[in-house]
C-alpha cells in the first residue's frame, strides 16, 4: 500500500493503479511500493511482456477515474467479511477487527476497495494530472512503474 502518511492524492492514485495493474495483469506478485511527496514507484514481479501501449492504457484509465470525480470514503468491516472481500488482507495485522476500509466510488461504480490506514482524498477529482512516465523491466521478470500526480 505505501506509506500511510503519503500525500493523499498520490496514496489514493496508488490504490487505483494497483487495482488497474491487477485487472490488466492478474498474475502480478510481490508488490513493493515507495511513495514520496508527489511521486511513487511500484515494483512487482510479472513473467509476461508489458508494452508502451499497456503503459498508455493504464495511464488513461487512471486519468479517467480521476476525471469521474468518484467519492472516496472510509468505513469499517468485521474481519471475516473483510477477508472474504478485500484483496490485501495479507497486509492487515491478525488482531485487527474491525478492519478499516477505503472505498473509491459507490454503487455500480466502485473503482477500488481495500484495507488501509492511510490518508486519502475525499474525491478522485483531487488527483490532479496522474501520469505514468515510465513502465519498464528492471531485470528479467521484475517490473517498475513510476506514478506522478500534480
Mean pLDDT: 94
Strand-residue fraction?
25-35%
Number of strand segments: 7
Q: Which segments are poorly predicted (pLDDT under 50) over 5 or more consecutive residues?
A: none
Q: What is the global morphology?
A: globular
Structural class: alpha+beta
Roughly how much helix do the residues carry, as a percent range? Answer: 25-40%
The H-and-E topology, N to C, reads as HEEHEHEEEE
Spatial sequence of strands, sheet with the most strands = 1-2-7-6
Distance between the termini: 20 Å
Q: Describe the sheet with the most strands.
A: 4 strands, antiparallel
Taking all Cα atoms into account, the compactness measure Rg is 15 Å
Number of continuous helical runs: 3
Short descriptors:
27% helix, alpha+beta, 150 residues
Give an account of the 3D structure.
By secondary structure, the chain is of the alpha+beta class. Helices cover 27% and strands 34% of the residues. The chain is built from three helices and seven strands. It has helices spanning 8-24, 52-67, 79-85; strands spanning 29-35, 39-45, 72-77, 99-106, 109-115, 131-139, 142-148. Helix 1 (8-24) crosses helix 2 (52-67). The two termini are 20 Å apart.
Topology of this protein?
Layout: H1 8-24, E1 29-35, E2 39-45, H2 52-67, E3 72-77, H3 79-85, E4 99-106, E5 109-115, E6 131-139, E7 142-148
Antiparallel strand pairs: 1-2, 2-7, 3-4, 4-5, 6-7
Helix pairs in contact: 1-2
Compact description:
The chain has helices at 8-24, 52-67, 79-85; strands at residues 29-35, 39-45, 72-77, 99-106, 109-115, 131-139, 142-148.
Amino acid at each position: 500500500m505505501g506509506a500511510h502518511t503519503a500525500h493523499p492524492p498520490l496514496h489514493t492514485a496508488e490504490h487505483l493503479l494497483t487495482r488497474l495493474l491487477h485487472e490488466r495483469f492478474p498474475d502480478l506478485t510481490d508488490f513493493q511500493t515507495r511513495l514520496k511527496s508527489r511521486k511513487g514507484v511500484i515494483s512487482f514481479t510479472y513473467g509476461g511482456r508489458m508494452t508502451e501501449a499497456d503503459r498508455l492504457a493504464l495511464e488513461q484509465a487512471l486519468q479517467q477515474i480521476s476525471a469521474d470525480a468518484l467519492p472516496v470514503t472510509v468505513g469499517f468491516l468485521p474481519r471475516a467479511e473483510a477477508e472474504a472481500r478485500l484483496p490485501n488482507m495479507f497486509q492487515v495485522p491478525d488482531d485487527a477487527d474491525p478492519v478499516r476500509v477505503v472505498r473509491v466510488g459507490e454503487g455500480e461504480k466502485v473503482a477500488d476497495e481495500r484495507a488501509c490506514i492511510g490518508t486519502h482524498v475525499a474525491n478522485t477529482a483531487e488527483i490532479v494530472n496522474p501520469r505514468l512516465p515510465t513502465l519498464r523491466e528492471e531485470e528479467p521478470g521484475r517490473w517498475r512503474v513510476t506514478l506522478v500526480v500534480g
